[in-house]
Amino acid sequence: MTSMANEPATSKVVCTLFDKNPRRIGVSTTDPNFIGYVNGVKIGYFTNNGTSRDDRSDNLCTHNVPVTCYSSASLLDRRSVIDVLRFCSNEGCLELGRRYHGLIIKSGFGVDQFVGTSLVDMYAKCGDMGSAVMLINRMPYLDVASCNCLISGCAKNGLFDEAFSFFMMFDGIDIGPNHYTYTIMLAVCGSLLAIEEGKQLHAQIVKMQYISDTAAGNALLTMYSKCGMMQDAESLFKGLVQRNVVSWTAIINGFKQHRDFEKALRLFCLMSEDGIDPNEYTFSIALASCASMKNLDIGRMFHAQVLKKGLALGDYVGTTIVDFYSGLGEAGDAGKQLKEMGKFASSASWNAHIAGFVHNEKAEEAIEVFADMVKNDEACDEFTYSMILKACSSLPSLVTCEQIHSRVIKAKFVSNMHVGSSLIDAYNKCGSVEDAERVFTQKSSADVVSWNSMIKAYSQNGHPTKALALFQKMIEGGIMPTNSTFLAVLSACSHSGMVQEGQKLFESMVRDYNILPEETHYSCVVDLLGRAGQLENALDFIKNLPVKPTAPVWRPLLAACRCHNNLQMAEFIAKQILELDPNDATVYVTLSNMYTEAGQYTDAEKQRKLMTVKDVAKEPGCSWIEINNRIYRFFSHDKSCSESPRVYQKLKQIVQQIEKRGYTLSAKEDNVALYHSEKLAVGFGLINLPAGKRIRVFKNLRVCPDCHSFLKYLSTIVDKEIVLRDNYRFHHFKQGCCSCGDFW
DNA sequence: CTAGGGTTAG
Fold first, then answer.
1. Residue nearest to nucleotide B1 (CA to C1')
2. Which end of chain A is more exposed for a tag (fewer CB within 10 A), N or C?
3. In Å, what is the CA distance from A224 to each residue of A195, A230, A236, A266, A556?
């Protein structure tokens, strides 16, 4: 045996093996996870994970399966055997299929080629590839249908390299691929974005005269559109001998996937003119397009159409409707749809409702729906946990986060990429780097997303050195960084004044990792230079960008001008930003306050007037107050809070009292954030906050004694409901106070 | 008779 113990064979290795006229694939009898050997060399590795849906088979056994299932073997007939196996394949009932397999062996139908193929298909579709391969090897002879089942099984289980290997097998044995085989392989190419291989298959299809087969044509169409070649897909579509509803759906979905929603909807109309009726697939795509376009009217129209056709309660269409309404903030309609779906609702439908609340920053409502979902015994999946953890981060609530974490552990989702990284993110946002660290180290295998989350956690919680060290470790571990990785390390450098490191990283991004910088990276570099006071360098950087600078690229430089008192440059930058985004309230606030501090009161007032005339100050979640020619802006994640007159009065009172006490509320900071956590207001922006940074105070946050007493003072004047937690950590720490940035 | 093509969400 070779030493390839834990890695799947690559198609390259396998292809060369198959080139040498392979005879037979074999399977290990001792290790159920090994799929097989060719001429004594292992070619693949399967994980036997087909048991995940077994909980469903008990129900299905008692309700939906033909009676013969329970009858003695002698009562089985060939027809129903095949029917039941097809049923198991479609529903993913592995356990039921296994039991049925036993009956089949007893009855003697096991030797039947068609029954054998159905069995292979059942195991493959249920995810038990080990058994599928074992059966293939025991079949008296292989035919194209059984091979297709095997290849299709690989493809459905994400084993694309293995699918290719088995496809190559056709060259070595007497049977050849047929049109079924090509459709399967085209789907594999689509998933791998393997356009070259796809084109080769296209050529073979033409040569073999399968091109007139509708399914093959549709598979080609999908392959091209998945690979991003929409022009080829469209011309292929136009040239199709026969366009059925699947062809139309495929091309419409292609344009939807590439975010050309208008074109997608235009084609939807053309389709009806062509006399083809849209079905549930087409409607799902159309509704999802409306959701992405944020077009409530057209979406409602589609909703009406599916209602009329009686398709509105199906899992996919129904869920898309929930998603459509909740994504547009129409939570009422979303909830109504979910309720109407009743038992037809799947976990996806619930997830869509939760996601809508999370995206619209209504974390509490999201958690309520989650509680409802649990109460309804709906199984939570990776999406549910990932979404609900995002809700925890925006609250932010450590307690809720811990509760969800325990559910995640119980449901065995910690190792899932999305759930794991959301967990790290959530602990990060709740201020507990220690917990984030624990999740990260306990994950059996870390994926790049989790590495990114952990680096970001260090970076955002005042551990820039740790962030960079972890980045180094990641590179040494051979993990390819992504653009988010660089965002995290660049911001770590920027917040800790490591200008040179930051610049080096930015350069290596393109040079060593071939990652094209985006707007956010440029913005980070501008921030890096600006914070360090290198205003001219930052300006040069922007001027020399290969693309036209956008408002988000200019903004950090304006903030830097404010910090470093460069009014002249601030005026120039302000002009640039307003040209790109005339409604940016920050610009007026910043300029006005800078003029006030420079004693240019007329100029200051001019800015405030402009701001009022343009009515730009009314950002959601933000209110502002003018005291002594200065503007203070208050942010709160709770819209109703920042917009309520009572709160407005309260805030005004606070600022006045603060000023009366001789404090200058944020000499360099015009934004004051008001956060709530678990019904407590936990923080205020304070003196000398770096621009753009809003403070959050959590129980484990490191606050220096000065700020602590200031925060305590604030808490006494704000409101009775607003109480600060008294368990800050008070010891010497190496990184700065999260409030004022001072070192203690 | 057995195998194939199009749908939801981080």
1. A114
2. N
3. 7, 7, 9, 20, 42
- Please tell me the predicted confidence (pLDDT) of residue A619: 59
SS (H, E, C) A617-656: CCCCCEEEEEECCEEEEEEECCHHHHHCHHHHHHHHHHHH
Give the number of other Cβ atoms within 10 Å of residue A464's Cβ: 22
A387 closest-nt by C1' vs CA: B10
Measure the CA–CA gap between A63 and A77, rounded to whole angstroms. Answer: 20
Asked if residues A354 and A370 have their Cβ atoms less than 8 Å apart, the reply is yes
The overall pTM is greater than 0.85? no
Strand B nucleotides, any atom under 7 Å from protein beta carbons: they are: 1-10
DSSP letter, residue A67: G
Domain boundaries, given as residue ranges, for chain A: 177-258, 626-718
Residues forming a β-bridge with A626: A631
Q: How far is the CA of A494 from the C1' of B8 (A)?
A: 40
Q: Which range has the top average pLDDT, A486-490, A631-635, A666-670? A: A486-490
CA distance A444 to A456: 20
Determine the nucleotide nearest to A121 by Cα–C1' distance: B3
pLDDT at A176: 85
pLDDT in tens, A383-406: 999 999 999 887 767 888 999 999
Residue A323 · residue A355 · CB < 8 Å: yes
Give the CA A386 to C1' B10 distance in Å.
6
User: From the centroid of its chain, how far is CA A718?
Assistant: 39
Q: Which nucleotide's C1' atom has the smallest distance to the CA of A355?
A: B9
Measured N-to-C along each axis, helices A113-125 and A78-91 cross at an angle, to the nearest 10 degrees, of 10
Cα distances (Å, whole numbers) of residue A417 to A38, A248, A386: 33, 34, 10
